[in-house]
Amino acid sequence: MPPLLTHRLLRLLGGITVAAILGFLILPAFVVALAAFNGKAILSFPPETWSWRWFAKAIAYPDFQSGFRNGLIVTAWASSIALVVGAAFAIALDRYEFCGKRPLEMVLLSPLVVPHFTVGLGFLILAAQLGLTRGYAVIVACHVVLVLPFVLRSVYVSLRNLDPRLELAAASLGAPPLRVLTTVTLPLLLPGLFSGWLFAAILSFNEFTASLFVTSQRTQTLPVALYNYVREYADPSMAAISVMYIVVTATLLIFANVFLGLGKVLNVEHPR
């Protein structure tokens, strides 16, 4: 078989494979989106009648409202704390050599491989040993640990793509290290910092497994409220909330990609 024909055939097979994988991933969301508009009071597919009432019910349901409010509080604190801590660790790991650097990096990235229910159970036991209630502080601390690797990775990649000559130029002109950091390094890292915060916020707001252990009825986040709801009801309100989740998350990621270029920030493509 001629090499050109082989190359085209491989590209065609690759495209078909990618399309099949994307279809497999998108199909559940498509089914849920259609089920959200079902006019009947039962979660079923395909819908026989169409209605928007489940979106109105989901928005007006008190537990969902309190869960949304609690989720915003936890997400704002967790993503902001993770941004500061993650950026500091990323700069330290990228710029300095010290004893225990590799073990420290492995510990910081360990939440990527440790099951979330293990982290949640660990924080529940720790809170009980310290005499703490399942309040916002425990939930925020748990979420910070879970989202920290994503902030660390985002800022670290941005640091690796940063031209060190710009910092050297500022230093050679007499700027002290702190001034170089605040006037040169951090402004150049803004896309990476914002993308890290955005990913942390999305992951924190959607976190369920660990939150199930560390939240109470008063502090339950929206995913936990959804779990409690589905244990008692089976109407399309769950699907309606899921559709709103998908739309908001996709909008935020598209916004970040258009204005920040997530491909460059995450090192998917090289800056020109």
Q: What does this molecule look like?
A:
- The chain is mostly helical and 272 residues long.
- 75% of the residues lie in helices and 0% in strands.
- It has 13 helices and no strands.
- The mean pLDDT is 84.
Low-confidence stretches: none
Question: Total number of β-strand segments?
Answer: 0
Q: Helix amount, in percent?
A: over 70%
The computed structural class is: mainly alpha
Distance between the terminal alpha carbons, to the nearest Å?
Answer: 37 Å
Order of helices and strands: HHHHHHHHHHHHH
Radius of gyration: 23 Å
Please state the overall shape, judged from the principal axes of the Cα atoms. Answer: globular
The profile of the biggest β sheet is: none
Q: Helix count?
A: 13
- The proportion of residues in beta strands is under 5%
Q: Tell me, rounded to a whole number, the average pLDDT.
A: 84
